[in-house]
């Protein structure tokens, strides 16, 4: 199992506004840092090398970001123990204060690429139900539940046929 994450935000200005320049000008560097971090698997990209042009809501200022990691620890290290952190602490310069959860984690099978719709559904679930094994946060991490495994027992061992 891998860990998927989505974070969302409503930007305060157009992405071309000079007040967004420091955020926009550092996206490639911060994304390259993610890709170079041990445990990185995948990240959402749009037409460019980031996801700022993906607008899944009617609000043109609503942005989404998603990625998949080998484990929670690798994602946590990237988010809070790399230079990514220096941009997170400045988020108030570029993003409106969220009214609800803005970050969600969930487990995905290795090889699964989550969709934006899937991430938004997990975020809504977190908002409606709080942290559960279906949708949670770094504060309340649930363990991965392994998918059922068929050990392929001989037909005479599995019961009545």
Question: What attributes does this structure have?
Answer:
globular; Alpha-Beta Plaits; 4-stranded antiparallel beta sheet; alpha+beta; 161 residues; 6 helices
Written account of the structure:
- This protein is an alpha+beta fold.
- Helices cover 30% and strands 17% of the residues.
- It has helices at 21-25, 27-36, 72-81, 84-88, 91-94, 116-129; strands spanning 2-10, 40-43, 62-69, 103-108.
- The chain has a 4-stranded antiparallel sheet, sandwiched between helices.
- The mean pLDDT is 92.
- SSE sequence, one letter per element: EHHEEHHHEH
For the report, how would you describe the main beta sheet?
4 strands, antiparallel
Mean pLDDT: 92
SS summary, helix count: 6
- CATH C-level label: Alpha Beta
Q: Tell me the domain tally.
A: 1
Query: What fold name goes in the CATH topology slot?
Result: Alpha-Beta Plaits
Q: Mind telling me the C-alpha Rg?
A: 18 Å
Beta strand count: 4
Fraction of residues in helix: 25-40%
Structural class: alpha+beta
Query: What overall form do the CA principal axes indicate?
Result: globular
User: How far apart are the termini?
Assistant: 32 Å
Strand content: 15-25%
CATH architecture: 2-Layer Sandwich
Low-confidence stretches: none
């Amino acid at each position: 199992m891998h860990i998927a994450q989505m974070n969302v935000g409503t930007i305060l200005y157009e992405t071309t506004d000079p007040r967004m320049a420091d955020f926009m000008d550092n996206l490639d560097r911060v994304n390259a840092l993610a890709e170079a971090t041990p445990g990185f698997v995948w990240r959402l990209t749009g037409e460019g090398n980031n996801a700022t042009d993906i607008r899944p809501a009617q609000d043109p200022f609503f942005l989404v970001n998603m990625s998949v990691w080998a484990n929670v620890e690798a994602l946590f290290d990237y988010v809070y123990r790399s230079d990514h952190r220096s941009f997170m602490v400045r988020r108030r310069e570029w993003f409106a204060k969220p009214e609800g959860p803005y970050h969600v984690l969930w487990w995905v099978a290795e090889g699964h690429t989550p969709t934006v719709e899937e991430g938004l559904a997990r975020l809504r679930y977190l908002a409606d139900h709080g942290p559960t094994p279906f949708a949670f946060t770094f504060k309340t991490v649930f363990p991965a539940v392994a998918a059922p495994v068929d050990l392929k027992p001989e037909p005479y061992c599995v019961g009545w046929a």
